Amino acid sequence: MRIILFGPPGVGKGTQAQLLASKYNMLRLSSGDLLREEVSLNSQVGRKVEQYLRKGHLVPDDIIFEIVDNMLIENQDNDILFDGFPRNLAQARNLEKSLAQLDQTVDIAFEMYLDENEIIKRLMNRRYCPKCGRIYNYVTNPPTNDGVCDFDKQKLTKRDDDTEEVIKQRLKIYETETRPMISYYETLNVYREVHAQGTQEEVLTTISEIVDDYLTSKSRSN
Ligand code: AMP
């Protein structure tokens, strides 16, 4: 199964992707996490992409294709949940082409959506654990002890790009670059939209019902 999760920054994609990947035993492929890892390793790719991440701009497609295509080949036997990839039409088309070479296709493309004021509020209160990657929110999902991860007690960190100015830039890019993918996935008949208001569990239930229906109809047709 190949599932895409896209939506504006702060909509809860990363959290839902972690929950869904563990529920359906899928590999979560987050292009943002892969890029941040390259930056923290100070690798050749990391040095190339650092400025884009800091400003909230999209990293050039050829760098993304290289990273993702390698992951697709290495993990062709796994079910994959794409988190934050593809981010524009060229990436969506390239993904379809790369999957076709492996005799695969996208099964469902979920777009999560939320009111813009809520998004900004969520992002300004977002923190993550630099060790395990768990995402917290001081408003909607606070850690038990202020400022530290519930699981490994690491000090929580704010992402460099979670500042008001960069958030606005990322939202603008979402509108112009990423949302046009909707009609592409509508044409492929795999597009589903999900309102991301509500608790993590409520949103997970909404998405899971769609995945379960899909799996049931697929097993009937086999
Ligand atoms: P995210 O963690 O998904 O919010 O991504 C953080 C940043 O990484 C974005 O603002 C972009 O600069 C970069 N990025 C992540 N995924 C992609 C992608 N598929 N294409 C281009 N840039 C990306």
UniProtKB/TrEMBL annotation:
InterPro entries: Adenyl_kin_sub, Adenylat/UMP-CMP_kin, Adenylat_kinase_CS, Adenylate_kinase_lid-dom, Guanylate_kin-like_dom, P-loop_NTPase
UniProt xrefs under Gene3D superfamilies: P-loop containing nucleotide triphosphate hydrolases
GO molecular function: AMP kinase activity; ATP binding; zinc ion binding
Binding-site residues, ATP: G10, V11, G12, K13, G14, T15, R126, I135, Y136, G198
Entry binding sites for AMP: S31, R36, H57, L58, V59, G84, F85, P86, R87, Q91, R159, R170
CDD domains: ADK
Entry function: Catalyzes the reversible transfer of the terminal phosphate group between ATP and AMP. Plays an important role in cellular energy homeostasis and in adenine nucleotide metabolism.
Family per record: Belongs to the adenylate kinase family.
Protein name: Adenylate kinase
Gene designation: adk
